[in-house]
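Can't paste images in this forum, so I'm doing it all in text. The chain is below; anyone willing to post the predicted structure tokens underneath?
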Amino acid sequence: FTGPNGGGKTTLARAIMGLIRPTSGQIFYNGRDITDLGITERARLGICYGFQQPPRFKGMRVRDLLCIAAGNEKLPQSVCCDYLTQVGLCANDYLEREVDTSLSGGEVKRIEIATVLARKGSMLLFDEPEAGIDLWSFARLTETFSALHSKREATMIIISHQERIIQMADKIMVIEDGQVKEYGTKEDVLPTLFQQKTGRMCGQEGGTC
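Text version of the structure:
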């Protein structure tokens, strides 16, 4: 999902997760109408959500959060470390830390993405995963997304303005003013995202939306 800020991208993702209820229409997942299902039921079906601004959990360690996400209280340390490494964090520096205000916004963001990976859902929703993340970690994150994409084990919906992330997509949906303005393959939609004057993509540094 891409498009101007405030266009409705996050609202649509939250409706898919069950955080808000649509005023009309239906939501189908693998052929099943899930419109009336709650968040917990959707999570059990394999739908996972990474918030644009993740919550913090005072008193809970990063290791504990990963174990809860994986549904395994005895998740091996090596596995926990692998999830953190995939999002660009040095595991030994974070496993025993609390997910509280001592962590920066970017750190909490990456930890939350690691929990989504640990959940091993069949649909992974990421709301601007690059927000607040440094360039090195962003590069590591795009590698992780590419690896997930190549495995074809889950559907990923990523809300983003970043060209490197958009370039990975099989399908692109442009959302503006609460409406789907464009939807199609990367080959069909990408050309319209380039600005004629600047030659830059919407959301890219130097571009406009």
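Residues 196-203 have pLDDT under 50 and may be disordered. The first helix runs from residue 9 to 17.
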